[in-house]
Structures are given as C-alpha cells and as structure tokens.
Structure prediction request, 1008 residues.
Amino acid sequence: MKRHIRSYFQFLVAVTLLFSSCAYHPDVPDSSKETNCLPAIFPDYCNVTVPCNIAPLNFMLPAGEYSECVARITTPDGKLLTYGAGVKVQIPEDEWREILIAAKGKSIKVEVWGKTTGAEHGNEKSEWLSFSPFEIHVAEEPIDEYLSYRLIEPSYVAWNFMEIAQRNITSFEETQIFNNKMTSIDREKGQCINCHSYQNYKTDNMLFHVRISNAGTVIVNDGKVSKVNLKRDYTISSGVYPAWHPTAKLIAFSTDKTRQGFHTLNPNKIEVYDMESDLILYDVATDSVMVVCNDSTLLEVYPTWSPDGKYLYYCKSVPLPEELRDKDIRSYYQKIQYNIYRRTFDLATRGFGEEELVYDAASHDMSATLPRISPDGHYLLFAQGHYGCFHIWHREADIVCMPLDDETPSDIDLTKLNSDGFPDSYPSWSSNGHWIMCASRRDDNNYSRVYFSYFHNGKAEKAFLLPQEDPEHHTFLLKSYNRPEFMVEPVHISVDEFSRVFQ
Amino acid sequence: MNERSQWSMVHGQWSMAMFTLLFGVAVLLFFGMAYPHHLHYQEQYQLFLFDRNYMWEIVKLPGGVADLLGRFCTQFFLFAWVGALIISVLLSAVQLLTLRLASWGRLYGLSFVPSCLLWLFLLDENALLGGVWAVLLSLLASWAFDHLPCGWTRRILLIIAIPVLYWMAGPVCILFFLLQAPKRLSWYYGLFVLLALLPILLSFYLPVPADKLWFGIHYHRYPTVFPVILWVAVLSIFVLTLIARALHRWANASHRIVVALCSFVVVIAGMGWIVWKNSNFKAEKVMQYDFMARHQQWNRILDTVNAEKPNNPIGVTVQNLALAMHGLLTDHLFEYNQNGISGLFPTVERDAISPLPTAEVFYQLGMVNVAQRTVFEAQEAILDFQKSARCYKRLAQTNLINGDYEVARKYLMALQKTLFYSDWANETLSLLGNEEAIAKHPEYGRLRQFAYKDDFYFSDHTTSQMLQSLFLSNTDNRLAYEYLLAYCLLTGDRETYYQFTSIKR
Prediction:
C-alpha cells in the first residue's frame, strides 16, 4: 500500500511539474561518499556517442538499492544543470535540445549521485554516494528522425494484440501505423501483421503483410494504399521478407514455408526454420511476380538491394549431404548454414546476372543472415549465428560488419555494439550510414530492444538503448521490438485509412 | 396526506427495500454458491494493475471508465463470495435506479426486469462487468440530471454530458439520452445528431474498428460478439419506464403492498426460472476442476471425483493429475472414467480454457519449457487481448526454474502492481538469483531436479518417449513414472509397461 501511495504521490508531483511547465532542478548533495566506479544506471548511457538530434537520455538508478538520484550535466560551454526525482533522471525535451546544440561535435560531462536505501547496503542509515563522472559524446551526424517496429510478445504459435508503431527518435512520440484488431474478421484464428518495409527510408512507397484473417499485402504506392495477393501457382507462398528496390517500383521477396520447433531443454526455447524458400521479384505497377531463385534443394531468403539497385544480395543455405535430404529437417537443422550471395540486376531488362558468393559464413562454421548494405555501398552488415536463419532466438548471435571493397576483407570490430551471450540480430543502417541499429535481447534474454551504435571511419562505438521518457518503460514492457526500421519521415496514412483497403 | 396513507407509504418503502434486499441476496447466493467458478474464471483472464499507464490505456477509449470499474471489481472475483457481493450490489443498484424512473405501483415487479436481464447477461463467462457498470453509470447520470432544474443550464449540461458519458460508459449511454428526452423534442434532435456523430468522428481518430464505437468496445470478451442481452437490458429500462408512465393511473390505483409483492414474486419467479435455465452448470463444473488444479487442491479433487466420476475432458485430466500426485494413478486408473491418452495430455486448442489444466500437468511433471509455452499460448489466446494474473504467475515460476531471472523479474514486477498477487510477487522476487534458496524450495527445487537431461523438439518424440526420457532423467520423478505407466496401460503397450515396472523395482 505504501508503495502505491508513494507512486501516486510521484505521479501527482510529475503532473504538477508538467502543468507548471518547469523542470525540477535539485541541489547536488552537500556531502557524499566517493565510490570510484561508474553508476549502474539503466539504460547504460556511460561514455556513449549519441546523435545530435536524439531524444533526452533519461535514466535511473536501481530502485531497490537507491531512493534518490541526482545528475549534474556540464555542457561544453560550462553550463551546469541538475536533474533527478526519486531514482529517475528525466530531462525536459527543450532543455535537452539546448544541451545537444551546445555539445554538438563535443561531449557533455555527467556526474551522478545516488542515495542508498540503507537496508540494501547493510547500513541502517542511508547515505549519498557519488560515482565517477562519465561523458556522453554528441556526434555531428544526426540519426534518421523516425523508427518503426512491430510490438509483439516473443511468442510461440499464438499471438495476442500486435501493432506496427512508429517512433520519433528526436522526441518520445509513438504512434500506431496499424494494429491487428482493426480488420480481423476471425478473432479466434487471429490476425498477424508483419514485415513493414519502406523504399529508401521514405514512406510514400511502403508495405506490410496481413496474415490469416483478411490476409494480403498492403502496399502503399506513391501514397495510394492497396491490398494485393502475392501468391501465385508457381510460388511457395505469398511474399514474406521484403526489400524495395531503391529507385524502381519493384520489391524482392522471399517466399517461405516456415515452421517452428520448441526445445524441451535448450534455453533458446524456439527454433524457426524454413522447409522451403525461394526469391521472387514483384512489380508493383503491373502486379506481376517473377521468380529470382527457386532451387528446390536450397533455401534462399532475406533479399536486400545495394543502394544503387544494381545488386540483389540474399542468403542461401549451403548444400547438405545427400543422405540428409529425406530426413525430417529438424533432425539436422543445426547443420543448416547460410552464406551471403549477390546477383547483378539490370533494371532495363529486369534480368539477374550470375550468382556471386559475397561472404562464406559456412567456412567459419557459421550462418549469416539479414544482410544490409551501407548507404555508401562500402560495408556489409549482417547477423551471424552458429546455424539457421532466425538468430533472434540464438544466444550466440552477433552483428557482423565487413568492408565490401577490400579484396581480403576482415570483420570490423563490433564488440562495442554486440552483447556477450545474448541474441543480437536484425541490423540496419541509418540513411546517412553513421548509425547502426539492431534488435538485441541483452537486457533479459527474452524481449528484443532497439540499440544504436555510432559508426564512423569503419569503427563502431558503444551501443545505447532507444531512450524512453520513463526510463523504466523498457523494464515493464512485455513486448519485443520486432524488425526495427529507420525512416526519414513518418507514415502519414492513418490506421483508419489502412483499414479501408480491407473493406 | 392522512396518517393511514403516510404509514402505508413508509411501510411500502420499507417493503420495497426488503424486496431489493431479497433480490440482492438471491444474486449473492447464486453467484456465491451455484456459480463461483465462473467468477474465478473471469478473474484469471485479466491482470488489473495499479499503474497509470495501464489505466490510461483503458480509460482513453469510449466506455473506458465503465471498463476500468468493471476490471477493478473483477479482480475481487478471486474470492467468489466477494465477487458475488459486488454483482449483487451492482444489480440491486440498477434495480433501485430503475425504480425511481417511474411510479410503478402494481407494475413494481417490472423494475427488477433490467437487473434480471443483466444477471442473465453475466451468466456468460465472457460477459464483462464493464457492461453492467456502463448501464449503472448511465442511470446514475440520469438520476443526477433529474435533480437539476429545467432551463438553459440543464440544456447546456446535457450537451456536455452526452460526449462525456459516451466516453465514460460507451454507446450504452444512449440510455441516458433516452431517459432525459423532454416532452417537446424539437431541440433534442440536435443532441441525437451529436450522439450519432460521436462514433463517426471518433472512427477517424481511434485505432478501433468502427462497429465497436457503435456497439461497445469492451462489454464482452469476444470482440466479434454483439452483447444482445446487455442491449436488451438497456432498452428494457427505457421501454418498461415508458410502459409504467403510460399505465400510471391504472398501476397506482391500488396502494396495497400485497399487489406489489405479487408482481415482485411473478417477475422474480419468471426471471429466476429463465436465469436458472440459462445457467451453464456444465461449464461451471469444468471451471471447478480447473480452479482446483490451479490451486493444487489435490485432496479436494479426489473427494470430488470420487463423488461424481467426471467425464468431461478437463475433469478427467485434473482427476488423473490428482491421482498421480497421490501416487494412485496406475493402480486406480480404470476405476475412473478415462478418455484415452487425452485424459493424460489433452490436445491443446487455441483457446484460453483447455491449455491451462494441460499446462498444469506439464508443470508438475517437470516439463517446464513445455508448460511455459502452453501457458503463454493460453494467455495469448485471450480474445480481448488482456493478460492473465494466473498466467503471469506461472510464467514467472517457469522462468525462475529455468534460471531466466530477468524475465521472471518482469512478470513479478507487473504482479507487484496488483492487489492480490503483490505479496507473492515480493516473496518470489527475493528468490531470483538465489540458487540455494531455489534448490531448497519444495516446488522449484524439485522441478529443477526433474528437468530433462537431453534436449529434443517437443513434438519430435511420441508421448511415450517423452515420458520415458523424463523419467530416465530423474528416476525419483514419481509423477513421470505414474504417467508413463498410465500411458502404457491406456495404449496397451505391455512391453514398455513391464520394462519400466521392473526398473522401478
């Protein structure tokens, strides 16, 4: 009850502050005990490099161990600002923007004090601790203003409410693009929405899929919404993993027969695998489908275009011994590994050239998936695990980056981006190529969160978590951020407008 | 007014209060004694959080306040008698507010009809209490407006009240609109347009299907179901009030209490019969078995099955689990109804009911990953997209047993924000990461020891192989042994039966 009273009191304080439009600037403690260690803040923003247009990096100290937190920010021009209410440090957006302007291309210094609860630290009396200061480097380069993702429980077979949402990264505004209760006509079977994709980070040409109830692919073509069925007699399925051609109204898709297996002991819990998969090219203007690869003995998946549209990159499984072919795929699934290939593409003739091996993951006894080419065309980013094509369930999975220009390329050091022993997957580049985004389960091993890392001159900096207005948001949110995609502008079509194509 | 008629009026008011009380007691006894597990069922498919984000997500939609009040009350259904009392008070309040709408006289009994219809509505385990609250809020608003003097102030307040009440109670607020209709309707047509425009306008801005804005977003758990009985109850209030007003003279020609008593008896007997006939006691029985399994009342289950020998799939599953928990399954298997191996492991359907007792079996056996998946699927199958306190609790437990402490912490932190699960959550939070305490814990320590030693995909093995592997992982797993032998007996697999009975010896 005390806890409830306290939280309501905090709520009232927050509401009062909100309506009085002024931030609370607490005094730093008069005396404190030095700890000589960095504060255990969540999210960990110690010594990170952030874009010059990011939303406030609000953070908190662990609530069980501390009762109060005060942070003092020193800007490069010598301005001192203090924040903190309870264990949370929440910086007003207007003040944060001023800080970023002053610190662009430089660093801000952050000093943190935490008042212990006493009991947790073995003392009856609580005391103020001061931690080693840390810096937040503010890069010159901005990040794309918007990000979209599907919010979904990391589910097995059944699913509940899901939505594709867009978030303004420069503020905390989050709005819905679509949700699965708008047009579901058979709630018992449910409706799944997935695979949102944009052409060149813009939203005038975009798509997402709707499965099961009222199924189809919703395509926005120059702002006009329509629903199409991509299944043809000669394809395995309708379109699955999409990739818009950067300039033409063409979309490469994989077509997949996907299944799941459930481990009885393995902590990875779920295995998602393809029984079959091919690649197709869909022409938005003519509603025609062309097969790109359909080797029945191999699995082709995750297409992506080079920024100039002259290459189609994709993953393809390595041939397996003949004797395994007739067996149940689950019995040898841990032997399936994917390499990254590419084929030239001639926009005029719609013809594809010969296949070329780009990255031989299998030779390192690894499996590479989800390739993405940097906007300058110099780097290849992908997720890599020991086997399979769905690395978000694989604890060893990491993001890998390699230069495309070198004749003997070696991986770029991404240890500051990757987590140790937790799945890191679904990498992507910001439109200026300076920010790498990935989905990672490093916080709890179950719920994917969005992490960003600054990339400059072939070097990646320490990754940081997507900031939230309430730093506790990520702790309480029981949804995964699925398929995070950068956008330079928001989706302007409303949920209601999307739902009309189902009528 | 002479002394005799004053006495008669006071006496009449007391009698009416008594009739309302009688009605309330009948509702209380019905839900407390005949329908308690329907209330438990309702409670287990929601997770009421004392959290402003959770509350905001509810109240921001039309009908949100009624929905929030409904969910708030539903959390008390964990204790069936408290739930029954809440329903009884709500239905009695609806009757009292209906009563004041007209001078009913001989038709007094009709004032109970809307409450009885709401009672009928609540027989459906998927009917939500928010619907009843929506009716009550509309009646309360109407009652409050009846105390306002006529004039422009009242008219202006009416214009404000329509959208406010639509937001609070949802489309059921049309009841308020109908009850407040003046005799001269000319200006009131404008308000009707306002009421009709609200759902149309909101459909452009709210991410909910347009039809839900007309018929109610959260009056029923099944989003595609139109809650007919609720709407009949709503309209009955208006129609019966009109009838009472139209027959005012005739109805009030006699002030004899006995006449009112007769109409009360007739309506209650008639509606009571309808309620009883429409009660789903089969479902109640299934829910009872599920409830007993949830609370691990193994002795009570055995007492119940010995008395009635269940033949519904969930009853048989729970019966077999209770027998196995007492080490009686193999010896007494055929003394009870069986439905093949489905009585051990029923097929998990994509619904919110059948997976939970099955998950209990997996959990008790030590198949923790499988139990986790089954509970998760059950929660995801809740059709109104709510979460379940029962499922959260079990998901926290399975993650704790698996050593996924941070995931367990998430569920426990959510449960900390509940009224009735916070103590348990606090206790369990202290176990996270404490390997020694978990090992000593009578349930979690035991289940950790029973874990599989080798991994395989769940459906790769037959049930027999799955049980053999489980038993061989830890031959102290008595439950796995009981289930394995019972499986052999039910399938006629003598070879495996003798093989394992000899191992155990």
Q: What stands out?
A: Chain A touches chain B through 47 residues (CB under 8 Å). The two ends of chain A are 49 Å apart (CA to CA). The CA atoms of residues 297 and 319 of chain A lie 8 Å apart.
